[in-house]
């Protein structure tokens, strides 16, 4: 006896949430095909109709022919295909699950770092209330330091003597 499909085991709503917008048309076409197949399967009875062998025994004149057909028909068993892929899918899912867990763990670490940075920024004085000394204390690497790191006006990296343009540096490397 073959397994009977009662209904689609695909959670289409959950699947649709994960499909990118540009592929929703393909998902809809696939769902229509899947639903059509399921309707065709459910339109047929789960078991084939029973054969009335006595009618054939009376109407077929060759003796033993119907008995032979009946014996062969009843011996015929069409096997349900063996599930050879579930183990591979489960193994692949366990690998993907590990990657997902690692990504979530890394993301949570990043979130904690960013929340710490946000808390530090919120703890600072508002920029409109800061003095140059407050800015230097808060951002020592960004603040002007005329004694230890003298710079030329307008004090941006492009105007300094040791500045190398990253785009020209790449171009000079090829020459």
TrEMBL record:
In the record, what terms sit under GO molecular function? Answer: proton transmembrane transporter activity
- Output compositional bias ranges, type Basic and acidic residues: 166-175
- Cite the InterPro entries for this sequence: ATP_synth_F0_dsu_mt (IPR008689), ATP_synth_F0_dsu_sf_mt (IPR036228)
Where is this gene product found?
Answer: Mitochondrion inner membrane
* Record region (Disordered): 155-175
Q: What does this protein do?
A: Mitochondrial membrane ATP synthase (F(1)F(0) ATP synthase or Complex V) produces ATP from ADP in the presence of a proton gradient across the membrane which is generated by electron transport complexes of the respiratory chain. F-type ATPases consist of two structural domains, F(1) - containing the extramembraneous catalytic core, and F(0) - containing the membrane proton channel, linked together by a central stalk and a peripheral stalk. During catalysis, ATP synthesis in the catalytic domain of F(1) is coupled via a rotary mechanism of the central stalk subunits to proton translocation.
Regarding protein family, the annotation reads: Belongs to the ATPase d subunit family.
Q: What is this protein called?
A: ATP synthase subunit d, mitochondrial
The organism is Papilio xuthus (Asian swallowtail butterfly)
């Amino acid at each position: 006896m073959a397994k009977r499909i009662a209904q689609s085991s695909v959670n289409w709503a959950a699947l649709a949430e994960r499909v990118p917008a540009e592929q929703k048309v393909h998902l809809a076409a696939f769902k229509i095909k899947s639903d059509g197949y399921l309707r065709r399967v459910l339109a047929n009875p789960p078991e084939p109709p029973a054969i009335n062998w006595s009618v054939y025994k009376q109407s077929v004149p060759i003796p033993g022919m119907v008995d032979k057909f009946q014996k062969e028909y009843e011996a015929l068993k069409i096997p349900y295909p063996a599930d050879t892929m579930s183990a591979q899918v489960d193994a692949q899912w366990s690998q993907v699950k590990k990657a997902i867990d690692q990504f979530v763990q890394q993301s949570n670490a990043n979130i904690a770092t960013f929340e710490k940075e946000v808390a530090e920024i919120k703890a600072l004085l508002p920029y409109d209330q800061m003095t140059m000394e407050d800015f230097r204390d808060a951002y020592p690497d960004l603040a002007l330091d005329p004694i230890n790191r003298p710079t030329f006006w307008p004090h941006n990296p492009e105007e300094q003597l040791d500045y190398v343009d990253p785009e020209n540096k790449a171009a000079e490397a090829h020459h």
